[in-house]
């Protein structure tokens, strides 16, 4: 019986546990697995670092950090931790700490060695590219030099001339310089990022004032930068210069641009020898890297196989030590004292868990379980399931209920989606909403395992709320007879016909002008007669119907709230609240607005046409005036005078008696305490005085009177404003229907008036998008928020205090990843 369980919170007990020190950890672990005990912090004055188990919490935090590091490393390597079913095999925390430390040290060493090897490998790759590209430069220069020498030898017939092979790289005027004045050229080779190559060349030219020669060759594809480890496009360069001063400038510019310099021999034989050495070292490094990656992959597999179990173990132990820090230690340091709240129905389960913990920890003494007399208000606990949880969350978003006061959650399950549907009523839109809700409900297991976005997470959490909202919307849509604003005659024929017998009721031309005539006294079987749609009197009829229906629903729900205040007063044995709050509030509300509801129903039954606005206004302004044609029943004037007097009497009835009676009770109680103290000795009298000061709250008559005055004024004014607030049901229902009609007639039917299929398709697409965006999203959110306000303000303020606090037991299944931080 979930509804009865929801009506009042579970009965709670304040318990004390005296736990032997040797079984304290296991006891808290077992209680965390049970999840039915909320511990109280018995060391509120101590900081987290001054508590007994601070070192253990720090150890668990460090292990959690290592596990997060392992998880990040596995994800970075592109692997997925192996999943295996959880077993009940316990993990020793000390052994786990040693194992995690060893694994972290091994992994750090492997990563450091891999980084060094990868850096060396990247440098050798760049060196190999420099040897290839720069070798091509010098090979081309030698070929050019040989060609020029051969041409000069043939032209001048001088075979004994030996010139440097560097000379073709210089200008011709420099080639004619005397040998004594010629300076030998130097060069630097390396690689530079391709994006910086142009700037690199400009800076070199300006720094050397043009006294340099630069050759560049872009590298095909990308290479791994040894410094950053990122793939980058690079260019091989060779800079020729003259003098040590120019060399120092070139070196500094290379360092500034992040260019990697590599040595390049001029001798072709040394070049080939160096290439061979680089290729050999690259092959060795690659083999070493492959072996290291294989070893790291095996470590990741080993870690990933146990990662989930280790994470859960560390998370549970950290939470357990946090809880142990809330316990007080006996002076002998042989036992720990815990206090907390638990449901009365959970006592046998808790005692069983305590016995199992003592047995498994080989403790010679069992944990002592005692129940205290409660002096403070217990937490509120409602046992909900996946269906009722969302509705309870709607209520508790306003405020957590006071301990065992009437819970509006069990009524919200029906009233919330129904009031939403009153504003949203369209069975076409309801079907669309139902399809979305069914998708969330039928796929709840798969969606529950996924990480959803904020909006999708909110929709998933309220999937059963949306489901009921959709079902009720279909129901009210049939009552309003609207399917995307189109009526259907599913429930029999209309009670009206066209005055001109040549036309059917559907094609009657006078329906929008002079109107139609009624020919049958049997009303349409269910809902609104479809003939009202599109007629001249459609808007006045639906306005009157929905406005009166909103008032009836509002008065009914507010009466339900006042009735629940009676159940609260009876449950807490508060006769004052019954006689001086429930009765006058019920009389005041129904003497005015209950009477209005009666007139609405009576007018519907009689089919008469009195003006109810005139009746209610002159009930206050001129109660004795004859109603004339607005009279609905005989003796109505006298009844209204009596109801008005009852409403006037109810106001002081709410205001004065309760504070005066409370004052009288306080005076009598103080006299009784004084007489009782005189009979005792001085010592016992002082103790009684201390207890009295501790237990009794200070009574101030002025504060009680002001509080009751505020409460009375709030109810009197709220009776008017809350009734008017329920007219939002009419306003939003009318807005929804008119928007739907506008989109249907001005978009879809307008496009359907053309014979061009493209225009019809465009019209259908526009109609679909505006219906989804405006009516299924914006209107749904609007109706949801208005229904929320009606429950929080108009309904719950009649009986619901909402000043309690929620029962938050120590439970492992409620721990999240944030608890690892």
TrEMBL record:
Gene behind this protein: LOC112280977
Name the record gives this protein: V-type proton ATPase subunit a
Record membrane topology: Multi-pass membrane protein
One Pfam family per UniProt: V_ATPase_I
InterPro entries, sorted: V-ATPase_116kDa_su, V-type_ATPase_116kDa_su_euka
GO cellular component: vacuolar proton-transporting V-type ATPase complex; vacuolar proton-transporting V-type ATPase, V0 domain
One of the protein's GO biological processes: vacuolar acidification
GO molecular function, one term: proton-transporting ATPase activity, rotational mechanism
UniProt superkingdom: Eukaryota
Record keywords, A-Z: Coiled coil, Hydrogen ion transport, Ion transport, Membrane, Transmembrane, Transmembrane helix, Transport
Organism taxonomic ancestry: Eukaryota, Viridiplantae, Streptophyta, Embryophyta, Bryophyta
Biological function: Essential component of the vacuolar proton pump (V-ATPase), a multimeric enzyme that catalyzes the translocation of protons across the membranes. Required for assembly and activity of the V-ATPase.
């Amino acid at each position: 019986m979930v509804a009865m369980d929801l009506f009042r919170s579970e009965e709670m007990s304040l318990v004390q546990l005296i736990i032997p020190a040797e079984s304290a950890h296991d006891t808290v672990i077992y209680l965390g697995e049970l999840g039915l005990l909320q511990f109280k912090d018995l060391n509120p004055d101590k900081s987290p670092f001054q508590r007994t188990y601070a070192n253990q919490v720090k150890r668990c935090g460090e292990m959690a950090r290592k596990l997060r590091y392992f998880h990040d490393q596995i994800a970075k390597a592109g692997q997925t931790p192996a999943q295996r079913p959880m077993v009940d095999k316990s993990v020793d925390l000390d052994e786990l700490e040693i194992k995690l430390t060893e694994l972290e040290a091994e992994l750090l060493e492997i990563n450091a060695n891999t980084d060094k090897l990868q850096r060396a490998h990247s440098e050798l790759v760049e060196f190999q590219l420099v040897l290839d590209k720069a070798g091509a430069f010098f090979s081309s220069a030698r070929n050019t030099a040989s060609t020029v020498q051969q041409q000069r030898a043939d032209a001048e017939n001088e075979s004994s001339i030996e010139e440097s092979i560097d000379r073709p790289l210089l200008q011709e005027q420099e080639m004619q310089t005397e040998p004594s004045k010629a300076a030998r050229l130097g060069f630097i080779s390396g690689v530079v990022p391709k994006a910086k190559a142009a700037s690199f060349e400009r800076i070199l030219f300006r720094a050397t004032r043009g006294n340099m020669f630069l050759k560049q060759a872009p590298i095909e594809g990308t290479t791994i930068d040894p410094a950053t480890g990122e793939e980058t496009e690079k260019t091989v360069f060779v800079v020729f210069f003259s003098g040590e001063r120019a060399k120092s400038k070139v070196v500094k510019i290379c360092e500034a641009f992040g260019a990697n310099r590599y040595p390049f021999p001029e001798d072709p034989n040394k070049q080939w020898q160096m290439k061979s050495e680089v290729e050999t070292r690259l092959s060795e490094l690659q083999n070493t890297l492959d072996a290291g990656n294989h070893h790291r992959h095996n470590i990741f597999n080993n870690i990933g196989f146990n990662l989930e179990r280790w994470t859960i173990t560390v998370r549970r132990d950290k939470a357990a030590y946090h809880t142990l820090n809330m316990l007080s230690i006996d002076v002998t340091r042989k036992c720990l004292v815990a206090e907390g709240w638990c449901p009365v129905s959970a006592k046998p389960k808790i005692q069983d868990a305590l016995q199992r913990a003592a047995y498994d920890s080989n403790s010679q003494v069992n944990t002592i379980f005692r129940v205290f007399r409660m002096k403070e208000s217990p937490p509120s606990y409602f046992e909900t399931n996946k269906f009722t949880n969302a509705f309870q969350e709607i209520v508790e978003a306003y405020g957590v209920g006071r301990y065992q006061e009437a819970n509006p959650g069990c009524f919200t399950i029906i009233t919330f989606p129904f009031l939403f549907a009153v504003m949203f009523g369209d069975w076409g839109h309801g079907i669309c909403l139902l399809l979305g809700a069914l998708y969330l409900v039928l796929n709840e297991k798969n969606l529950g395992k996924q990480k959803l976005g904020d909006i999708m997470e909110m929709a998933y959490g309220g999937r059963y709320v949306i489901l009921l909202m959709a079902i009720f919307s279909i129901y009210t849509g049939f009552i309003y007879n609207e399917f995307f604003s189109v009526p259907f005659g599913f429930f029999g024929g209309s009670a009206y016909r066209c005055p001109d017998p040549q036309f059917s009721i559907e094609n009657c031309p006078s329906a929008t002008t002079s109107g139609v005539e009624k020919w049958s006294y049997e009303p349409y079987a269910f809902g609104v007669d479809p003939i009202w749609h599109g007629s001249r009197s459609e808007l006045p009829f639906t306005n009157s119907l929905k406005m009166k229906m909103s008032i009836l629903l509002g008065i009914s729900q507010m009466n339900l709230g006042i009735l629940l205040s009676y159940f609260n007063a009876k449950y807490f044995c508060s006769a004052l609240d019954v006689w001086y709050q429930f009765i006058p509030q019920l009389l005041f509300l129904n003497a005015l607005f209950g009477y209005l509801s009666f007139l609405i129903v009576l007018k519907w039954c009689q089919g008469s046409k009195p003006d109810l606005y005139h009746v209610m206004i002159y009930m206050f302004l001129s109660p004795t005036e004859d109603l004339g044609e607005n009279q609905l029943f005989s003796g109505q004037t006298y009844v209204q005078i009596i109801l008005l007097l009852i409403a006037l009497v109810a106001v002081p009835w709410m205001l004065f008696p309760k504070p005066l009676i409370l004052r009288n009770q306080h005076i009598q109680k103080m006299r009784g305490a004084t007489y009782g103290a005189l009979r005792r000795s001085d010592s016992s009298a002082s103790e009684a005085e201390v207890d009295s000061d501790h237990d009794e709250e200070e009574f101030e008559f002025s504060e009680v009177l002001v509080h009751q005055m505020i409460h009375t004024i709030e109810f009197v004014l709220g009776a008017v404003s809350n009734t008017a607030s329920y007219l939002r049901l009419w306003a939003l229902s009318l807005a929804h229907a008119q928007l739907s009609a506008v989109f249907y007639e001005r978009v879809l039917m307008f496009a359907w008036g053309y014979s061009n299929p493209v225009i019809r398709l465009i019209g259908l697409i526009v109609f679909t998008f505006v219906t989804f965006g405006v009516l299924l999203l914006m209107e749904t959110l609007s109706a949801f928020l208005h229904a929320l306000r009606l429950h929080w303000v108009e309904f719950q303020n009649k009986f619901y205090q909402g000043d309690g606090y929620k029962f938050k037991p120590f439970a492992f299944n409620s721990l999240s990843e944030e608890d690892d931080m």
